[in-house]
UniProtKB/TrEMBL annotation:
<keyword id="KW-0472">Membrane</keyword>
<comment type="similarity">
    <text>Belongs to the OST3/OST6 family.</text>
</comment>
<dbReference type="InterPro" id="IPR021149">
    <property type="entry name" value="OligosaccharylTrfase_OST3/OST6"/>
</dbReference>
<dbReference type="GO" id="GO:0016740">
    <property type="term" value="F:transferase activity"/>
</dbReference>
<dbReference type="Pfam" id="PF04756">
    <property type="entry name" value="OST3_OST6"/>
</dbReference>
<feature type="signal peptide">
    <location>
        <begin position="1"/>
        <end position="15"/>
    </location>
</feature>
<protein>
    <submittedName>
        <fullName>ER oligosaccharyltransferase complex subunit</fullName>
    </submittedName>
</protein>
<dbReference type="GO" id="GO:0018279">
    <property type="term" value="P:protein N-linked glycosylation via asparagine"/>
</dbReference>
<feature type="transmembrane region" description="Helical">
    <location>
        <begin position="220"/>
        <end position="242"/>
    </location>
</feature>
<keyword id="KW-1133">Transmembrane helix</keyword>
<feature type="transmembrane region" description="Helical">
    <location>
        <begin position="306"/>
        <end position="327"/>
    </location>
</feature>
<keyword id="KW-0808">Transferase</keyword>
<keyword id="KW-0732">Signal</keyword>
<feature type="transmembrane region" description="Helical">
    <location>
        <begin position="274"/>
        <end position="294"/>
    </location>
</feature>
<keyword id="KW-0812">Transmembrane</keyword>
<dbReference type="InterPro" id="IPR036249">
    <property type="entry name" value="Thioredoxin-like_sf"/>
</dbReference>
<dbReference type="GO" id="GO:0008250">
    <property type="term" value="C:oligosaccharyltransferase complex"/>
</dbReference>
């Protein structure tokens, strides 16, 4: 990762740089990351601003042999790349990298216990920026001091045991919630998986071709095909593949020990959401099927009562679905009744 391909030796007037000038600097980098001399970082992070600064404190030159620093580097690069793909010209955030060995030479009040760390400096409200993560304009002796208002992303200890995609997904979710944006990560093409799936599909088609007469006789007049189709549909729309590929927890707990059935945001989900979505969609399908069959009832009283009853169930079920979706996307407007069952 060419994080230090462009080094910005910031002078004392860096705080006067406008957002458009910073955007121009950012776009001249190869990966969207600005390399900054730690001795001038104070001038960079202090002063009025309406944007975030995301600073990675790490062992850039690997002088200390920090293996996890080298493992987190492609994760940081991947998430920054996702930001640049979707928000390159917005100036909502600027990304910087600082070498920890140089930090201690210029900032004696820094107490970094471990690296790498990601420190996120929110906008300063003196420029009228309205956001949930808004800091007060302060006169700090060092932007790298512990008293400085910033948010910290602690690199998980499980980083070496997981893939770059899994680690990038976790960091992207953390950053997206702070920046109030959506980050879309590009999946890496795995040729070995592609070849294995291609060979498996080829062998399956050959078996079906040779035994198509026997298979046709077994499926004719049975419910096997219908059940298989329904199961395949529900698995496809429930996000089962996402959960199985990333090994997400089924029912995690929050900091208070309470069970979490739904995760916020559309880029992540828990294992429990697979069952929740299947139950909701299956209930809606049953209501629709019953309503289609109700006109065949000969008794008018039973027909009208059944139509009214299952129409009510369908209405409530749909509002349960939209209420769940609002938890994933709070800006969703099409909800008549909010039913907070989770």
């Amino acid at each position: 990762m060419q994080m230090f391909a462009i080094f910005i030796w910031i002078t004392s007037c860096i705080a006067m740089l406008s957002k458009s000038e910073l955007l121009d600097i950012q776009q001249k980098t190869t990966d969207g990351v600005i390399g900054i001399n730690p001795s001038k970082f104070n001038e960079f992070c202090q002063g009025p601003r309406d944007y975030f600064i995301v600073a990675l404190l790490t062992d850039v030159e690997n002088e200390a042999g920090c293996r996890i620093c080298q493992q987190f580097a492609p994760v940081f690069e991947k998430v920054v790349g996702a930001y640049m793909d979707g928000y390159r010209d917005t100036g909502k955030a600027f990304f910087a990298v600082l070498d920890y060995s140089n930090i201690y030479q210029h900032h004696h009040d820094v107490s970094l216990s471990t690296v790498p760390q990601v420190w996120i400096y929110p906008p300063i409200n003196s420029v009228g920026y309205s956001a949930d993560y808004d800091s007060k304009s302060g006169d700090y002796s060092s932007c790298l001091g512990e008293i400085t208002e910033h948010l910290t992303y602690q690199v998980p200890e499980s980083l070496p045991t997981r893939s770059i995609q899994e680690n990038s997904l976790e960091f992207a979710q953390f950053l997206a919630e702070i920046l109030q944006i959506q980050l879309y990560l590009k999946s890496e093409f795995d040729m070995s998986h592609f070849i294995s799936y291609l060979l498996g599909l080829f062998l399956l088609t050959q078996v079906i071709r040779k035994r198509r007469d026997k298979i046709r006789k077994r499926l004719a007049g049975s419910y096997i095909w219908q059940v298989f189709s329904l199961v395949s549909i529900f698995i496809s729309i429930s996000g089962y593949n996402f959960c199985s590929q990333r090994g997400v927890p089924f029912l995690p707990t929050n900091e208070k020990g309470a069970r979490m059935f739904l995760s916020g945001g559309q880029q992540y989900q828990f294992g429990s959401e697979v069952l929740i979505s299947i139950v909701v969609y299956l209930s809606l399908a049953i209501c629709v099927t019953v309503l289609i069959c109700i006109p065949m009832i000969s008794n008018p009283l039973q027909r009208n009562f059944g139509a009214l009853l299952f129409a009510t169930f369908l209405f409530l079920g749909y509002n349960v679905l939209t209420s769940i979706f609002i938890i994933k996307n709070p800006s969703y407007p099409f909800n008549f009744i909010n039913i907070p069952i989770f």
